[in-house]
Design goal:
five-stranded parallel sheet, Rossmann fold
């Protein structure tokens, strides 16, 4: 069986995921493997059509395509997304149609599910037979049980290809509409009251739905609002995964991105990210922005900002991307996720009203630096970062460790001294049948009664 491995890590052969692939090659030597480092070679692949065509020829002759990647800021790397864009831009989707495929990744299990959801949806959009995926921790290869699970995964995958097993499909094709947004006049102009408003986009064209939504949003305010097109920023490449920024937030790139991010993006109070839906994500340029912003590591560099999105395209058909966009604000940044406005409703008046309402809300929330209580995406994500940076990754991400320690991020449950004392006492007392009965009889109503007393004593706003 000929297996083409598409390596989505810019680290090439030094990718941790590729070590798992090497392990599988040793366990299943009867197959013919060819690894193509699409992420590391992306600039050459983009410029050289002969090199790109050679990759497509390899895929056409393969029995199976195995996508290998690390999780890069809630998805795959920007370089991998660019390769996926090239597939549609150059009209070679047929080379993938009907091919059996699977995905394998390594990470610290932080939003690995959104990365795999993205990869599966891309494969299904290409008409591939998606068999399975496996998300592994970066250290799982050292664990005998995990190695056995990896072997079972691969054996099951190869059997599916050999028997031409039918695969399930999770995603319906995206349906784009031809609606043309016609903006109306603003109802009222909103004063910024000294708050800096920044609109970022990956492509500003005035006559597109996105361009008109951007302009209509800016017209909601009194005075000029900053608009920056990412194409005008000196960004010489996507994140390389060198992790040198882990010591002191210093990126190894010598381009204009760091100054732009620190002096423009971080200085804004209100940030609107605007883009067209491009397949199952935004553009690879937007992914480059998110990946390069990782020079701030796991430290929330946009904490307490007000953030929202303007999207052109069928976002409601892509729930995975909605979760990525929300988590990019909350779980990654500890910022306030205000809203997402799209052109899906196909009603210009309704879009106008939504844009006016968004502008008013963002100014109002910015004045008090409001951040809504976090949900599972942010709370769970924080705990994954906290535990790994406190533990095995402290030496690598030293800048994060210093920040977390200084700002009380190491909020482990065992540091709650009150419950460390009360918990064992209650556990001992509930061994007594009469106490246990009384305790559980009151469990349902006691918290509500405590809150009722608190509400009674609180002042009116």
């Amino acid at each position: 069986m000929k297996i083409v491995v598409l390596n989505g890590s810019p680290k090439g052969k030094y990718s941790i995921t590729m070590q798992y692939i090497s392990f599988l090659q040793k366990q299943f030597p009867m197959h013919d493997y060819k690894t193509i480092h699409v992420a590391r070679r992306i600039k050459a692949i983009e410029k050289n059509e002969v090199a790109f065509s050679a990759i497509i020829d390899d895929i056409q002759s393969a029995d199976m395509v195995l996508w290998s990647f690390g999780v890069w800021v809630l998805a795959v790397s920007a370089q991998t997304m660019r390769f996926i864009e090239l597939i549609s831009e150059r009209g070679v989707e047929d080379a993938f149609r009907g091919k059996y495929t699977a995905a394998i990744s390594t990470s610290i299990n932080y939003f690995d599910h959104t990365a795999h959801n993205y990869m599966r949806s891309v494969c299904e959009d290409l008409g591939m037979q998606f068999v399975d995926s496996m998300s592994l921790d970066i250290m799982d290869l050292r664990n005998e049980e995990k190695r056995q699970q990896l072997i079972v995964f691969a054996d099951s995958l190869f059997r599916a290809v050999e028997t031409k097993a039918a695969s399930s499909c999770f995603n319906c094709p995206l349906l784009f509409n031809s609606f043309e947004y016609q903006p109306g006049s603003t109802r009222n102009s909103i004063k910024t009251d000294g708050k800096k408003v920044l609109v970022l986009t990956d492509k500003y064209e005035k006559d597109t739905n996105l361009g008109m939504m951007i302009d209509r949003f800016r017209q909601s305010f009194v005075g000029p609002i900053d608009l920056i097109d990412l194409n005008d920023i000196d960004i010489r490449g996507a994140c390389l995964g060198c992790m040198k920024c882990g010591y002191d937030y210093q990126c190894q790139y010598k381009d204009g991105f760091v100054d732009f991010y620190n002096n423009k993006v971080r200085m804004a109070d209100i940030i609107i990210l605007a883009g067209d839906l491009k397949g199952r994500y935004l553009s690879s340029l937007w992914k480059t922005f998110f990946d390069r912003a990782f020079f701030w590591n796991h430290t929330p560099s946009l904490a307490r900002k007000q953030m929202a999105y303007l999207i052109s395209g069928p976002l409601s058909q892509n729930s995975n991307l909605i979760q990525i966009l929300e988590a990019s604000v909350t779980a990654r940044q500890n910022a306030n996720f205000v809203d997402i406005i799209t052109d899906e409703c196909e009603n210009s008046g309704q879009i106008d009203a939504q844009l006016d309402g968004l502008a008013e809300r963002m100014i109002r929330m910015a004045k008090i630096q409001y951040v809504k209580p976090q949900n599972f995406l942010a709370v769970g994500g924080h705990k994954v970062f906290r535990d790994n940076i406190w533990g095995r990754l402290r030496c690598l991400w030293q800048a994060d460790h210093r920040f977390y320690k200084k700002n009380g991020y190491y909020d482990f449950p065992q540091n709650d001294h009150k419950f460390r004392i009360i918990g064992p006492i209650l556990m001992a007392l509930t061994k007594i049948p009469t106490f246990r009965k009384k305790y559980y009889d009151n469990v349902k109503k006691m918290p509500a009664l405590r809150f009722a007393r608190l509400i009674e004593k609180s002042d009116n706003v």
